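Anyone able to model this chain together with beta-D-glucopyranose?
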Amino acid sequence: MSKLQILFVLLVFNVVSSGFSAAQTARNYEAEAGTIVGKMTLEEKALLVSGNGWWQTYAIERVGVPSIFMTDGPHGLRKSLVPGLGKAIPATCFPTASALASSWDVELIREIGVALAQESKANDVQILLGPGINMKRSPLGGRNFEYFSEDPYLAGKMAASYIKGVQSRGVGTSLKHFAVNNQEFERMANDSIVDERTLREIYLTAFEIAVKEAQPWSVMSAYNLVNGTYATENRYLLQKILRDEWGFKGFVVSDWGAINERAKSLVAGNNLEMPGSGDFNRNKIIEAVKSGEITEARLDEMVAQFLAVILQGDASRDKAAKFDLETHHEFARKAAGETIVLLKNENNILPIDAKKAKKIAIVGAFAKTPRYQGAGSSQVNPTKVSNAFDELEKLFGNGVSMSFSEGYDAEGNTTDAMLNEARNAAKSADLTIVFAGLPDSYESEGFDRSSIKMPDGHDKLIEIVSAVQPRTIVVLMNGSAVAMPWKDKVKAIVEGWLGGQAGGGAIADVLTGKVNPSGKLSETFPMKLEDTPTFPEFPGLNKKAFYGEGIFIGYRYYDKKNIEPLFPFGFGLSYTSFAYSDLKIDKTSMTDADNLTVELKVKNTGKVAGKEIIQLYVREETAAVVRPDKELRSFAKVDLKPGEEKAVKFNLSKRDFAFYDTSLKDWTVNSGKFTVLAGSSSRNLPLTQTVEITSSNAAAKTLNRNSMLKEFQNNPGCKDAYAGLLLSFGFNINAPKPENQTPEQEATQKKAQMAFLAFLNDLPISKLPAFTQGKFSEQMIDGILAKCTATL
Ligand code: BGC
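re: yes, here you go
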């Protein structure tokens, strides 16, 4: 048999066998849902899209519709059997999102997703309400601890991986909060006013990546309004963008209590109301169908989309499902270890050398009663909690003696007695570790922070201890950026985030060197609040938040404004060192339809094994529109033994060079030079390469009588027309250089031409007939517009 024949046989076999097995196993939930909806009464349909209490949906036994259970999320299961935030059943509390994103480890997030799904299944939960991927517009955002990043690409990638992990085990996710939900202040009434470009480039991109790459079973519509319309009633967001553009197939559930007018929300595309409002909104649905406000066809569509997911969730119910508490606790410790960011390590004081540091003073209540998660709907009832003090004791064994001083109370307040005790302990020790950060009352769902400062008690404690103990290490537990006025007075700073129930163990692993820290900041740490992008506007006034900073949030802002942050986005140290080299791109010129392959080498140049997060950014060099100095477009985490070197490959495509062009209503790449920058943080990008891109954009389609001359120049198909337009003013762009010109004459002529050209370039072509006294006619304008558009 020839190779071709074998291939053919294999192909036929594959087609037949996959068709056969598909018919045997795969159910078509959409078709089943459609059939069931056809049998349902109007009352039943209204019932199904209205929640049954806080966490469940109605079963409609007459037509075989089961009930499903949904619950928070995101970093652990909070299955509460009572309404609201009542105590939940025990579950593993993993690190919160700001920590997880600092691992930059998509595979780790996927595995956490799998573990969360196992716990969901064992507790008969069909939908886990997460991940939360809103952008950290301001470090003051009360739920920043629950969100991944200030960068949409990083957040989108993390979310996609989380969703894939959870859903791979037949449990659904709910991507939240859609959209532009970036503050807690007046969260149910605030109108986020944001321009279209900013919306697309910053606030929707993470959702777009997650929806396109991972198809969450549901998306949660936000409490707030977006540009004057409630997110729950926003057809532009829920139908046009989410479903029509991105191809979302699941159902939209309102955030708990986010429905404003139920009929409007159904028309817009908000399938399910949660929690249930009893007869209240159900009756409104029935009335709205009867009055014609909602067509029955639209209601059917809304019911069917939701029902398909109910059937899917129900199909993977498994009474025998269980998980091992201890295995998950250990996994939570490993995960937390990946998220910890080493911010400072003077003289390599870390990892602690137990042979030298025999007497260690542990200072700060968080060492024994850690802060490991945030408050609000995401608050998990952990299966157990490990603290850093006990875990350090276990790792050090008998060779090290450790003292403990409380340092501050639960609110972060301190007293002279507390400070004195800590000072004395620190003074007589070989080394001191201060545990500090943000208490519960500083960071929660439901309110924003008023400052980026840590409690005075924490700051004072660090000042006092570091004044008497030159070997002071600070370990932080907080869900988002904090100021560090004492930064230069301490030897090391470890960002432990809200590390989940096993975070204490992970901190001990890092301090002792059992784990080499490899996390990098998923958000910028500013020096002071006044430096931040939304200062002093945040959180808005009169129920309106104007997103005046536009696309410039996070590092995009600090870069553009040339503001030195305390620690930049993407920053994090290791116990080893890495060298970057050999950045290569596979072409130096291309069109925007081509892909660019980028390759570089990274080497572990230190003495211990470690992981490095390589970041790839793109900058447009000669941007005609205002663009960030650079934007994260790819990253990779690699594991390297001492001396080992690895080549890492990235692939960039059109979207990585594009901006959202509001006149085209599409992503566009302008022709020009683009620099690819690679390195270890947003402020350390030693490797660069430049590529010249020719745009195939359709900008000429938008040309009209009011387009300026330069807009013709920027369109590939209109270059000739542009030269012709200039010529009508006697300006010959292709004229040969006059002979025998002195350099002075040439310079004078060039200067005059430049000024004239600047004037002409900004001239709308509709002005030409008047300026040329009719020589350039209206017909000529029509001709040029027709020709330019036709050449595309
Ligand atoms: C939160 C959501 C959460 C829901 C259910 C809301 O208050 O904003 O994130 O999923 O409650 O607990």
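Residues 72, 129, 176, 255-256, 377 surround beta-D-glucopyranose (CB under 6 Å).
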